[in-house]
Amino acid sequence: MNAATGASGGSEGMGDVRPEAADRTRVILLVEDDATDRHLYGRLLWYNGYSVLHAADAETAIATALDARPDLILLDIILAGEMTGLDVARRLRSEGMDVPMVVLSAVKREELGAAVDGLRIDAYLEKPIDPFAVVREVLRHVGGARPADDR
Q1: Quick one: which of 21, 58, 78, 117 has the most CB atoms within 10 Å?
Q2: Helix (H, G, I), strand (E, B) or coil at 12
Q3: Does residue 2 fall inside a structural domain?
């Protein structure tokens, strides 16, 4: 893991993206406080060719997003600390980030009511989520990371 950016290949020791492929790699910011989910989604995205940045709390998510300008943000609603994923989305939108945001949450969409309106959330997936549905959603919003023969 790169300590400065939180970037990893999904798991330490899994190897680096070859330099010639790095130019085509899409960057996904995974904001998830559950270490198991973070590892699962991170590895699956990495395996599918994405560069994955990790954030376990809202403050790290905001700082990482503003610094790295990812292609897409996967965002849990319930996070450790005082801020929620909705607070993250609200702050990033107020900073002018027009990146696709996909919510991954155990909180049902209808329970949030109007709190989600106006945040331009591109998709809302309710946990438990088929991990491959997450990859399909990422593909739908930002396309593939790199050609299959480049892995």
Answers
A1: 58
A2: coil
A3: no
Pairing of strands 123-126, 101-105: parallel
Alpha-carbon distance of 93 to 99, in angstroms, equals 9
Measured between alpha carbons, how far is 1 from 96 in angstroms, rounded to an integer?
28
Picking from 1-5, 86-90, 103-107, which range would have the lowest pLDDT averaged per residue? 1-5
Q: What is the CATH classification number for the domain harbouring 26?
A: 3.40.50.2300
Closest CA to 51 of 77, 72, 81: 72
| DSSP calls for 54-102 | EESBHHHHHHHHHHH--SEEEE-SS-BSS--HHHHHHHHHHTT----EE
CB 135 within 8 A of CB 45: yes
The first and second tokens of residue 151, run together, are 């892995």
Neighbours of 43 (CB within 10 A): 17
pLDDT in tens, 35-58: 999 999 999 999 999 999 999 999
